[in-house]
Please model this.
Amino acid sequence: MSYSSSREVILPPQWSEAVITIASSFPPPPITLICGPKNSGKSTFSRFLLNSLLQRYKRVGYLDTDVGQPEFTAPGCLSLHVIDDCLSDFTNPCIKAPEKCFFFGDTSSKRDPNAYLDCTFSLYDCFLKEFYQLKRNGSRKSMSPLIINTPGWVKGTGFDVLVKMLRYIFPTHVVQLRISAESKNLPTGIFWLDQHEHKEPINLFEIHSAQRDFLDRSVLVPKDARVMQEHRLFEYFKQCFPSSYNIETNKELACALASLPPYEVAISRIKVKHLHYEVPKSEIFHSLNATIVGLAASSLEPRMNGSCTPWCFGLGIVRGVDVRRDLLYVITPVPCQSLEKIDLLLLGYIEIPIGFLQAGGLVSPYMSTNVMHKLSAKDL
Amino acid sequence: MAGATGVRSAASGLRRRPANAADAAAVRSRGASWLTGDAVARGRWAARGRAAASEGARGAAEELAAPPARVRAAGGQLAARVRAAGEMWRVTGAGYVAGDASGAEGGAGEATGRTGYRERHGGGGRLVAPPSVRRHLGMAGVRRAPCASITLAEPVTSKSYTRPLRSSSFSSYIAATILTRVRVFDFSASMEILGSEGELSSGYKLVPWSSWDQWHFVRESLFSSSPDSVAKALQRISAWRSRGCLPVPIDVTAAIVEIQQKDPFFREGISSDALNSEELLAMLYSMAIMRLVNCFVEPAHKKTGRSISELADVVGIPRMLVDIRHESSHRNLPSLRLVRMASTKALDWLKSNYWEPQRSVIPDVRKEVRLRLHEMSFYLKNKHAERSSSSQGKPKRCKRSGVLMRCNKLSSQLVGKLQASNSDVSDKRLSKITKRITRLYSSYPSEVVAVLLEYFHLQVPDFSKGTNMECSDDLNVDDSGPHLETVFGLKTIITKLSSKTPGLILSLLKTLLEMIEAKESTQSEKDGCCFLSSKHQSEIADTNRLCSLVHWLLMRLKSLKDSGRIGIIGKSLETSTDKHASPNVSLTKLLHKVLSQSIVDDNHLSSSVLLLAQMIGNTSLTLKLKKLPLMATQHQDFEDESPFESSLKKLPLMATQHQDFEDESPFESSEKMLLREEACVKQAKEKLELFKSQLRNRNATNSTKSNASDRMWSVAKSWTPCPIGMVPCSFSSTAVLPVVDEVDDTLDPEDIETDTGNFVNGRVSPKRVSGEAAVDSGSGSKRQRMTREEQELDFAEISSPMKDRLLINGIWTKVSEEELLDIESNIRIFVN
Model:
């Protein structure tokens, strides 16, 4: 197999077999769900699968349900992408505009599993409707295969969520990645269905994580989730600037963000909603200032089941609030024409990277010295 | 050596404050037992140590107050010892020290930084680890390294550690040992911070509050006896919680307080949200207590594997809480009475282990600034005295009290020395202090401005909240005020500082203008009834002085602008976020701001307006402004005429005509005069009609345009770089903290009156709260015009302040609305 990758890539035979089998499965185009514990190589596998599917298909759907480390969007988002171009860089996340997106507002589904599932199902339905239908009028088939990447939380509630997802989506292929520590793996076999429920054959691949003999080592060192998230947010907000700006470091981005003229929007014409917490109305601006928000249009709600939030158009940073002038200042890479629809700011727990808040001499007031902060929740 | 005496003075300084020494001892003994190598202990410990250390260093420094040379020596000595000791600890504790040390950075910097003393100090004797520490080191499995190579100035044996340190002769030593500990944590950062950043260290952390004042507000309200303020604090914490970076101690405290608020036992009277089920209350309390114990102990438990109760004992969590945690998770639910009692204990523990220690380590910038300013004025005085002494003989000194008396003596010695030796020394010191204040300004602009204005003997209403930080501080340097009592002194200082940081002028201007605005609005609230009261008079005098300072600052701004230290927005296109980039100011916007002050009839303000106009460089604008009735100075001679007549004269249009009349016949009869004035009014009416129709046309075209381009989202027209979470000041490139609290929407009766006269915009804004708001809403609704040439003032913005003035200024009250409209229209025609 050949890739347009700049790196020398060695694929374990088990992986390439699976990829070849999936890619050649036809008809219908395969709907592949990839699951497995953290750091087992799910995203890497999906990237390979994506590239090999693109050899056969013009467009490939990519449903990303890994809210913590999504492939093409910022953390906290659930998104459906339609990719028509091979990935060239396997080590860095690249931000792509999603077809449809929800802002879940957290990096794990644990705060609200039901809302999480609703969002996932909505996105899947959306894919089926738009990209998995035989066109009636012409003979030309425009069905695209779909890759579903899942979070690495496979125990407890995470397992339940995964099972529900599998039962709803009913993929044609399931790839389960397994690591050497057996206790952390998912059960073998078709664990999400009872015995008698087997109606049609499901292609299940249980393959082992590539460990050391694959790609370069950096992919496999246990990733610091926080660093990864900050890196994605960095990439995401870099889009606010033309590529000629050549922003490489956090500090450069922070400086650029500080001096970028933001969008102004009247507070009175905007609704603000926290997705996972009820903030007293009088305190809403204390909660909103200098945070990352999802930009949504309250009019555009998916028709499906109720607990979904409206579609999200992207993320923004509320960089200032001026209650006296009734103005919010928002930085966002969302293009101007989409912004006009946006009248809802969704707050969540996507923490603004501290790198954004320190730009040389310009330090955000939310950065403070002499803080007794030893016992943060992260220490638990 | 000067250093030795310095230490002695530091020690004696501490001796005079036994409470502090005892405190320090307590901290020390407790701190030692915490040296377990886990994050909890380290964090707590560093903070405590730092609190005490800074107290010690400050005690030494402030007892000596004035002669900084001495303070420096003393502090330097301390620092040297601390450093030496720190080295030792580094060796001893090398195995476990590597870890999270960020909390301690500030501490070491704080205690030693101000001294700027960098050399290592040698001496006799040897420092040995206290047995308790050794024990813990042993537990943590750390090999002890030899420490003979590191020495201290004073020999200390391990014995002195074990015995309770009540004797004050050890006080300076205690300070040093505590600093030692702090240094230990600092080590792993492997960064040289001694003397680099000083008391206010770097090491930024993300917090949910935007200023420590907010934190203080929450602390005070949370523990207050009024349920309303508790509710307010809980609401604010809830907003913080939604930001996701709330420190756990605050979280747990809020939880317990909230439960207590629901418990009828703690709430007197009947409240609607009380919870009457004992079972539920007990469960809530147990959960909160469980969380408290786990949050503080679990991380250490995981790391060290020691039992929860053992670790809880180390950090001083009452055993009762640990037992409740155990009972409620593994056995029966504890009784409500028990958990109720425990909840109070838990709050006490949180107070003494988070709220108080945190309070004490919050950098008191105002105090630091005061100290520096005080030093600065001291040197400036010396310089002044030197100069005058050559002509007069002896320098004058004013009478001072308390601490200042002492420093006065010292200062006189110093003066002598300085004069004898070298005046360059004081110059050097002066530039050092200037640098220090400059640095403070760059991180805490509002505080520096507040203190500077404090010295102008003014209350700064917006910053009064901050003063509660000092109320429990026995080392107040508040009384150093007299040093700066002369406005001249203040101005010299501002001049000096602003040549280093030109932005200071802009911040000062902004604060001043806001103060004037605030004063004016409170005055207009009081109405005219207490017009002649002495309070009113003094307030007027106050405002007057503020205005004079505005004028002076503008002159300073002009000179800085001329020398290119302050740029003009719009002219330079650079959007640099560099710290050293020169700040920018928009003169037009500043002019708006000044004009929007409701008391523009003040001499100083009107000359400020003219000065600004000159700086803008638009001569026609200057001329127009000169003609404006705002320039009350030119019209004082009309005082004896009827208000209406004088008002007409003030109208530029009328004024010119008036001029004509006067030219042809200076001594005309009053009848003739009236006739002419009638004619004038008639003419004015005609013009008004014309103008109105023009305005209507324009509005019509505008509205069609604006409907098409009525976009919800638009890119900000002008923007100056400012950190995320702040907004740019309305007229300059300095950043300000945004007002995030809801504005009170209740209408001021006075404002409604104003609005009836406001026909220009066609729409009456209901939220006309202040002059600035009025100007802003005006400019917001008429954006198109803003695209005009920058230097053109557009009339709506001038008319708003005009309108304010007409109504507030007493003289005009009898003018009927129609006449008022006439007057306004004329002004507009003229400006147009």
